[in-house]
């Protein structure tokens, strides 16, 4: 990766990735939005196609799908005004859960992408843990690859390889890492019976959202968000489960956040009235 990142232009780097057998796709210059109709699903390692894409948009950023299609997994350590993921990542690394990276890439925001190899035949879905400021990009996700650029406060900043492992890289166990970063919370208990309340199943809701075809994606996301709000799940948990699922279904990040926010506002209003969100009150049909 370091040699590709050293290419003098994005077009040359994109073709270099393709020649190495790594599927890529173009994103808007200085941004993350895909330029192809189907986003990361259009990624290819055909140098001819990649060359044609970057001939049309020479400054396009390089999108790299994660998961089994490329053999690449990425742990994204975020840095933003709300917090930093470096402390959580260091704790996970100290516990042996994230120490097998092959490359570290500094992102324009000051965070880091830690690259790992994917285990053959073992699918690991993307997820987010907002409370730890750490995301995982696996199957159903993508990252912006070096030497792409973003504008931060009006200043162009580059995705830069800052470290290459001197020992063999090894896959990260995304499920164990997530459990470490976000330990299971005790299930709510009915005070009368002392038995656990039934609650909702966020992973099942996320699966419905991810599998919903175009035309019903936003409604499915709204419905799933209402279910989680009704169950007392905080908004951050809804984002953690439903954002990667909705992105997999093809919804843009801004629309996803807006829909989740709308569902939580409605759930709060109906909760105050004692009704609670229902299929009838939401006018949702799946």
Task: Outline the secondary-structure elements.
Elements: H1 2-5, H2 10-19, E1 25-27, H3 47-56, E2 61-65, E3 72-77, E4 79-80, E5 83-84, H4 86-94, E6 103-106, E7 112-117, E8 127-129, E9 134-137, E10 142-145, E11 149-152, E12 155-158, E13 160-164, H5 174-181, H6 202-211, H7 217-230, H8 235-249, H9 253-272, H10 279-282
Antiparallel strand pairs: 1-2, 2-10, 3-7, 3-9, 4-5, 6-7, 6-13, 8-9, 11-12
Helix pairs in contact: 2-3, 6-7, 6-8, 7-8, 7-9, 8-9
Q: Can you describe this structure?
A:
It is a single chain. The protein is of the alpha+beta class. The protein folds into two domains: 2-176, Prim-pol fold; 202-282, no CATH class. 36% of the residues lie in helices and 18% in strands. Strand 8 and strand 9 (134-137) form a beta hairpin. The longest helix is centred in the last third of the chain and has 20 residues, at 253-272. The protein is globular, with a radius of gyration of 20 Å. Residues 272-286 have low confidence and may be disordered.
């Amino acid at each position: 990766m370091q040699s590709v990142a050293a290419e003098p232009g994005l077009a040359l780097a994109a073709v270099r990735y393709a020649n190495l057998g790594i599927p890529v796709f173009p994103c808007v210059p200085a941004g993350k939005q895909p330029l192809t109709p189907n986003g990361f699903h259009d990624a290819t390692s055909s140098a001819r196609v990649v060359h044609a894409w970057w001939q049309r948009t020479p400054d396009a950023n390089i999108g790299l799908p994660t998961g089994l299609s490329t053999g690449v997994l990425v742990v994204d350590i975020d840095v933003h005004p709300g917090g930093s993921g470096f402390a959580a990542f260091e704790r996970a690394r100290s516990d042996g859960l994230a120490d097998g990276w092959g490359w570290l890439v500094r992102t324009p925001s000051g965070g880091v992408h830690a690259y790992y190899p994917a285990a053959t035949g073992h699918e690991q879905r993307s997820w987010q843990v907002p409370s730890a400021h750490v995301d995982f990009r696996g199957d159903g996700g993508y990252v912006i690859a070096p030497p792409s650029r973003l504008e931060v406060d009006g200043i162009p900043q580059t995705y830069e390889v800052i470290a290459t492992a001197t020992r063999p890289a090894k896959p990260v166990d995304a499920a164990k890492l997530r459990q470490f970063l976000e330990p299971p919370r005790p299930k709510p208990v009915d005070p009368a019976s002392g038995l656990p309340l039934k609650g909702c199943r966020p992973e099942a809701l996320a699966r419905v959202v991810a599998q919903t075809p175009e035309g019903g994606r936003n409604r499915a996301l709204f419905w799933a968000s209402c279910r989680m709000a009704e169950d007392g799940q905080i908004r951050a948990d809804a984002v953690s489960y439903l954002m990667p699922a909705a992105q997999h279904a093809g919804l843009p990040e801004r629309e996803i956040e807006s829909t989740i926010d709308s569902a939580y506002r409605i759930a709060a209003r109906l909760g105050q009235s004692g009704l609670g969100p229902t299929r009838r009150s939401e006018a949702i049909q799946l």
